[in-house]
Amino acid sequence: MTGRQGRQPEDARRPAGTDHSWADEMVLFSGEQPVAGPRAGTPAGPPRLVPTWLVAGAVLLACVAVALAALWWQHRSRVIEVTRQIRPYLPAGPDAAGCPSGSHCQVRSDFGQSLSVQARRLFPDATVLSSVSVTSRETGQTVQTTIVLQTPSGLEVSATAQCVPGAAPIPPRAAPLPVVGPAQADFVVPGTPGCSVAVTAQVPRAVPVPAVLLERLAGDPQVQLGP
Fold first, then answer.
1. Is the pLDDT of residue 115 over 80?
2. Residue 52, CB half-sphere, CA atoms under 13 Å: how many?
3. Residue 74 maps to a domain
4. Residue 213 falls inside a structural domain
5. Taking every pair of C-alpha atoms in the chain, what is the biggest distance, in angstroms?
6. What is the pLDDT of residue 114?
7. 41 has pLDDT over 70
8. Closest C-alpha among 130, 137, 131, 132 to residue 100
9. DSSP annotation of 141
């Protein structure tokens, strides 16, 4: 012995029970890093399944989103339109011309009726735009008289006296008015059943409201028509 051990064979340095092939030795000694993963021929594991609660939650959220979208669209497509229309006062029974139903009437310009005379007296500086009376041909009685006039300040007054034989009583009507315009006055004073006087007025902005004169015209018993 020379005091120096010789190099042992490769087989002698291998631990007992190991059996590496030549391909294994080439991978280990070539300086390359071994690749992690299953060896060829090793069966793959089962696929990962999505939990049932997650799927149910996603479906529920989708249903809620669809419902909210439907409600929003229904609310958006709903259009509510409110229209307010002011119609002239006409007691029950007559047609648009003021003639009682089933009667034949004559319509003519007339400035001699009591309503026309009183309106021109209360508003002497006004211009008469229209003054008309409706007379029944069967009886020769005046069933309606109307006058429309306008003052230099722009105030427009319309007064109608009407009487329809056999019609129901007319309820009174009066609206509170401001001191100055803009405003719309509306007065109805009933007479005998089926008869009444109605006075309306359109008051422009900053024009004084002649409430006293309007009430006097509507409440004058001389302008009421008889049955």
1. yes
2. 0
3. no
4. yes
5. 165
6. 92
7. no
8. 137
9. -
Q: Where does the chain have alpha helices with state H?
A: 10-13, 22-29, 52-77, 114-122, 211-219
Higher per-residue pLDDT: 97 or 195: 195
Report pLDDT for 128. 95
Q: Other CB atoms closer than 10 Å to residue 186's CB: what's the count?
A: 17
Is there a domain that residue 206 lies in? yes
**Between 39 and 23, whose confidence is greater?**
39
- Non-local (6+) Cβ contacts of 179 within 8 A are 208, 209
Is residue 175 assigned to a domain?
Answer: yes
Does this model's pTM top 0.70? My answer is no
Burial 46-64 (b: 16+ CB within 10 A, else e): eeeeeeeeeeeeeeeeeee
Q: Both tokens of residue 132?
A: 């008309």
- Alpha carbons 155 and 135: distance in angstroms, whole number: 29
Q: Which residue has the higher pLDDT, 213 or 169?
A: 213
| Residue 61 φ/ψ, nearest 5 degrees | -65, -40
Nearest to 174 by CA among 130, 145, 137, 212: 212
H helical segments located in 93-222: 114-122, 211-219
